[in-house]
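Notebook, p. 212. Picked up where the previous page left off. The plan for this session was modest: take the two constructs that came back from the sequencing core last week, fold each one, and keep the raw output in the notebook itself so nobody has to go hunting through shared drives later. Recording the first one now, exactly as returned: residue sequence, then the structure token string.
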Amino acid sequence: MKEKLLSIGKMASLNHIAVSTLRLYDEKGLLTPQFVDPESGYRYYDINQNARLDMIIYMRELGLSLAEIKDILNKKDSARIEALLGYKVEKLSQDINALKAQRRAVNRAIESLERYRKSPRPGNFALEYIEKRRILAIDCTHNFYDDDIHSYEELLRDLRLRLSAEGISQIHSYNIGTSIKARDFIDGKMKADQIFLFSDLKENTNKVKSRLLDNGMWACVYIDNYDDELPYIPLLKKYCDDHRYHVSGDYICEVMTGFNIFDDDPKKMFLRLQVPVTFNNR
């Protein structure tokens, strides 16, 4: 009988798969050999079993598990196949979106480090055009400018916990930001308004406010230490006054890069202090 059958090696070679794969399919009940030699234990297959093997390989390429394939082949239910494939399409879409988000996060990290290399020296003022940005924000429950950096870190942890509770992964957000209302900035009041993360998500959440920062010209200054923000805020205001720029929105402190990935000092940060401005008609 076995003279008319294919050895497991020949069956594997014809289908460009490993012998171990055929053994696995046999163990899982997916493709049972036509004949097993009782003395040697060698497996032999009928050439007609190639059709079932082709179906198994095809469904594996579609992303179905061996258990799912076995269930389909045993039940011979086309509706079951359709439902499983529909689920796989949805899962693949989710995986693709997750990979795209990961790629965006990597690109943002590269851009952030590149900006650090190419940015003006700390303490230099500049006028920059900045594109629209979306933020996920919470109101500051206390004015961290009156306390030390641990007060700021507590607010940031609260924000991250709220995002986590909404099922929002950290990969969807990048630079950290804090704000002071425009009127307080103009009046010289150091009163924290919001803490937020810049994000590529557009959806609103129950625990976090989502809003869009308009594009336009921003008066900016870069600094490299958390403690330098307070003395530089009035200097940024003076820079605007000296150039007759009109402050048109809230002041923002943006953490471009956290140097504490290399240093234990939590205050070592690369910051961009910025405020949107418009100009008097000439």
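Okay, moving on. Second construct, recorded in the same format:
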Amino acid sequence: MTYSQIAVERRGAVEWIFHDRPTMRNAESSVLLDEQDAALRAAIADEAVRCIVIAGKGDHFSAGHDLKEGQEKRQGFTVEQRWAYEEQRYLDYSLRIWDCPKPTIASVQGACIAGGFMVANMCDMIVASEDAFFADPVCKTLAASAVEVLCHPWVMGLRSAKEFLFTGRRMGAAEAKSLGMVNRVVPRADLDAATQALAEEIASAPPFAIRLTKRSLNRAADLQGFRASIMAHFDTHQLAHATEEFGKMREKGLASAIQRARPAAE
């Protein structure tokens, strides 16, 4: 299959799926998300693939949802249209990463923001470069109730998630590792090699045993309420789009709100 906004590379038994819009900080457009999901499905179906890596070309993993596309194409959506769009491309696609029967690793450098944070944290593991940072500023800057998939308390703990979301601050790779959200932090120059080495180590294990183990681990999270909380928050997020606060932000321009929130040095 030919892709326009992602790139796919096979490295032995490891399939790499890259966000490939480096000049746009790998903002996740509808096309990119559709292509990423198609590539993930293909990798799941390919018996030669033992491990899947989701990564980003260029300086950043992803700056999150493509807000300019959203303003241009979806600003006039009805509640029903927005719900259907976000249920498919954000909720369903994210849960497909979570439910993927094969091990998944996010290889993160630079920005991993909002929608990018969501994608990376639905993977089984994260390998981050020393310059990687994580953020979900949409509560503070857009008056929305975090991104569509609220995995935050599950990957960094409840109190850290509250501070992270209420302030919209950035979290560096070292802090993310100390909280257990990131598995390994490596120099930027070593990121690809370190991720590939971890993926190959996992790929060398018996694949059906890995599949069963992952299923049991994910079920343990589900028994603690993971999936129920994800589904409940998605509904809450939809409500946020109908608030007066969000309407005022939309009038000002969502993309410009994010731009104003960025540090001047960025």
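Notes on construct two before I forget. The chain is about 55% helix and 15% strand.
Flagging for discussion at group meeting.
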